[in-house]
Amino acid sequence: MSRKNHDGSFRKLPNGTIEFAVSTGFDAYGKHQRKRFYGKTELECRKKHKEFIKAGEKQPVKIKEYTLSKWLDEWLRIYKENNVQASTYDEYVSFSCHIKRHKIGNMKLSQIKPIHVTEYFSSKIKYSHSYRKRSKFLINAAFESAIDNDFCLKNPVRRAEIAKKAQPEREAYTEEETQVIIDFAKSDEIFGLSIYIMLNTGIRSGEMRALTVDRIDFDNGIIKIDRAVKHTEELGKPKNGKTRYIPLEEDVTDFLKSKLQGKTGYIVSGDYYVSRAGFRSRYLHFFNRLDKYLKENGALPVKRKSPHSTRHTFGTLRQKNGMPIAMVAALLGHCSTEVTDKYTHLGDVSTLSEAVKKYPYLSTIA
């Protein structure tokens, strides 16, 4: 087979006839299409090709070359938008945004090599290994689909490396630290109420940002979690898409009632839910105020951990004080735990309420 000017290929058949094959693009299923013309000479084949074009058929279509950014947009729209849970799709969009901001996003699929993908993962070394593994899964799946549709020949992600870094253990505040934080939070009018709720319920920061006063049932001591601020900064359903109810200890209910009854709006920020950056800023400055207070009173400062550590604290201290892991999982909203599956009655709020009363959060809570 010989190629002339990269616009088709000729082949001499056993009977002496010349075959001229020209690419005409892709069909609706992404399969490569070719049109063939036959003659005694190459010139005759080309003449038939020109006549074919003049007759109204389309010119040969050049293979479409996507950049990684453009292909991710198409891939997410076609393959994922209506085929995965909303929370999973939001996570994919978040990963995609990170990729687009890196130089790899502007490269054509056919140009990307394993070294480029490895370099991208290295640029995210500050992120957790789990985050980078999920990001790799996304890019790998996108490239596999691109290969299936003939937009590229190789998947560079297969041989890309994710550098591992020493991962600190999941941290939680100690019981003593938690007591100090809660005591100060009660008097902090700026952000104390949010910290107080997070430590006493274990809700996610996105759920805290979406929490409004009307989600708290003061009469029955229950908080309803049915919304969260997503990675995209839009208001949506909680992570697993399910509403859950968190019973409160009696003193927690009384404190929230004294602070919130008669008020409306978002607990963190009033009329509008706060951005992720705004939430982290409030969290940081709360601990700055706490450390200043402790220093003035001759006490040691509390080492600040991430907002998510309040969730680990809740789970750790509940278990420490005797609550079964399945009940803790139900309170935290975990949807896939082998132990939880054995407690099919945990959807009953009254059962969880009894557990909250039976197993205290802090042994000396004020």
**Oligomer kind:** single chain
Low-pLDDT segments, ≥5 res: 1-6, 337-347
Helix count? 14
Instruction: Report how far apart the termini are.
Output: 86 Å
Q: Quote the average pLDDT.
A: 84
Helix content: 40-55%
Number of strands: 9
Largest sheet, spatial ordering of strands = 1-2-3-4
Strand content: 5-15%
Biggest sheet details: 4 strands, antiparallel
Which structural class should the secondary elements be placed in? Answer: alpha+beta
What gross morphology would you assign?
elongated
Features:
disordered N terminus, 10% strand, 3-stranded antiparallel β-sheet, 4-stranded antiparallel β-sheet, 9 strands, 366 residues, alpha+beta, single chain
What order do the helices and strands come in, and which of them pair?
Blueprint: E1 2-3, E2 9-12, E3 18-26, E4 32-39, H1 42-54, H2 68-80, H3 86-101, H4 114-122, H5 129-148, H6 175-185, H7 192-201, H8 205-210, E5 216-217, E6 222-225, E7 228-229, E8 235-236, E9 244-247, H9 250-260, H10 276-296, H11 309-320, H12 325-332, H13 338-341, H14 349-358
Helix pairs in contact: 2-3, 2-5, 6-7, 7-11, 11-12
What features would you describe in this structure?
The N and C termini lie far apart (86 Å). The longest helix is centred in the last third of the chain and has 21 residues, at 276-296. Helices cover 45% and strands 10% of the residues. The chain is elongated. Mean pLDDT is 84; it is low at 1-6 and 337-347. By secondary structure, the chain is an alpha+beta fold.
